[in-house]
Amino acid sequence: DAGKGEYDHYMLKEIHHQPTALSNTIDGRVDDGTVAFETPLSQLVANIETVQLVACGTSYHASMFGAQLFRSAGIPTEVIRASEYEAMAGPVDERSLVVAVTQSGETADTLDAVRKAAGRGAKSLAVTNVVGSTAAREADEAIYIRAGPEVGVAATKTFSSQAVTLALLSQRLAGAVPDATPRADGNAMLEALPDLPAHVETVLETSRADSLARDLLEDRSYFFLGSGLGHSVALEGALKFKEITYEHAEGFAAGELKHGPLALVTEESPVFAVYTASEDEKTELNATEAQSRGAPVVAVGPNDHPLVDDADAHLSVPDTHPVWTALLANVQLQLVSYHVADLLGRPIDKPRNLAKSVTVE
Ligand code: G6P
Questions:
Q1: The complex's ipTM?
Q2: Ligand 1: which residues within 6 Å by Cβ?
Q3: Are 153 and 243 in contact (CB under 8 A)?
Q4: What is the distance in angstroms between the CA of the first residue and the CA of the last residue of the chain?
Q5: How many angstroms separate the CA atoms of 99 and 249, rounded?
Q6: Residue 253, strand partner residues
Q7: Maximum distance among all alpha carbons in the chain?
Q8: DSSP code of 38?
């Protein structure tokens, strides 16, 4: 427990460690608009034409986030839940790169998916937090997210560091994969990156998630919606919420609201609407739809946005490049989950039935 320092829980300590973790993730990897990792990756990616990201849980949400950036860099990319690899993955061969995104490097389903892909000729890369982990040892190459040890079962800082590592990797591969064109705003994304740790600090210092949490305790269901990168963050927000509060939470793509979840929307189902400046239209429309059925809407994103004016509450994040805005929104949602769980007296660092690392299939 001494390891918790001034914090009541490891999870809160790890949420607050994100500025440092992210500084470490970024350190020395971007120079004048060019991304370079410690391992050059040149041989690994020399003949790569397609990428598959495989992962579970929170790492899957970071992979969804990453996959969108890979695609926007012109790299044909699939993102597959590792446990569904056989059913969902497209064919691979020696021109494919399978990327195992796994904090621990020990998740059985993820290791199994990589082994299957490698058995079919794919090259493999581990994106992990743990040096010497099975994923790092078995893959052809490894990149470390450098988040530092994470003790809380609910992953927080590793999500942020995975997402940033994958964003960097998308830029690195854009320069290597044939026909891939770096995203038009790739330089702007990289230029804004050094400010991300300070922006996370601002969120941590100014967040009103603790007072908002008090208003949410009596509700029945909690919905998280977003589009694009906001979709990944919505799924992650809902997963975190259910893991540690034990309350029903569901995340979905904003446009899916009317295809089912709307049936559950009442005045007792707050809706967290995650938006960035560039991905907000569907989120705004569907948040309004939920609100008209009585659901309180919490806007999670930058100020100066119509969603903020209409919402019942706002969790504000600094206005930076939209890619990083999405990650800042996730930090706000981490804090909401933490404070709700804390007020409910849940065992935050060790939720019932869950394990930090799932080494069985
Ligand atoms: C478990 C943990 C999650 C984690 C998932 C994948 O379910 O409780 O927090 O996201 O495993 O773990 P990995 O180590 O592969 O990232």
A1: 0.97
A2: 56-59, 102-104, 107, 110, 153, 155, 354-358
A3: yes
A4: 31
A5: 29
A6: 226
A7: 56
A8: S
Q: H helices of the chain, where?
A: 10-16, 18-26, 42-45, 57-72, 85-88, 108-119, 134-138, 157-174, 186-192, 196-206, 209-215, 229-245, 281-292, 306-310, 322-343
Is residue 356 annotated as part of the catalytic site, yes or no?
A: yes
Element (H, E) at 78: strand 77-81
Q: How far is the CA of 179 from the centre of ligand 1 (A)?
A: 34
Whether the per-residue pLDDT at 361 is higher than 90: the answer is no
Contacts 24+ apart (CB under 8 A), 47-50: 47/94, 47/95, 48/95, 48/96, 48/97, 48/123, 48/173, 48/176, 48/177, 49/76, 49/95, 49/96, 49/177, 49/178, 50/75, 50/76, 50/77, 50/78, 50/90, 50/92, 50/95, 50/96, 50/97
Q: How many residues does the chain have?
A: 361
Sequence letter at residue 145:
I
DSSP 184-236: TTHHHHHHHGGGHHHHHHHHHHH--HHHHHHHTTT-SEEEEEESTHHHHHHHH
How many angstroms does the Cα of residue 354 sit away from the middle of ligand 1? 9
Candidates 61, 85, 102, 358: which one to mutate for ligand 1, based on the most atoms within 8 Å of Cβ? 358
Residue 2 has pLDDT above 70, yes or no: no
Mention every residue, 6+ apart, whose C-beta is less than 8 A from residue 280: 227, 230, 301, 305, 307
Tell me which of 14, 53, 56, 65 to substitute to probe ligand 1's pocket, judged by most ligand atoms within 8 Å of the beta carbon.
56
Residue 1's pLDDT band, with cuts at 50, 70 and 90, is low
Q: pLDDT digits over 231-272, tens only?
A: 999 999 999 999 999 999 999 999 999 999 999 999 999 999
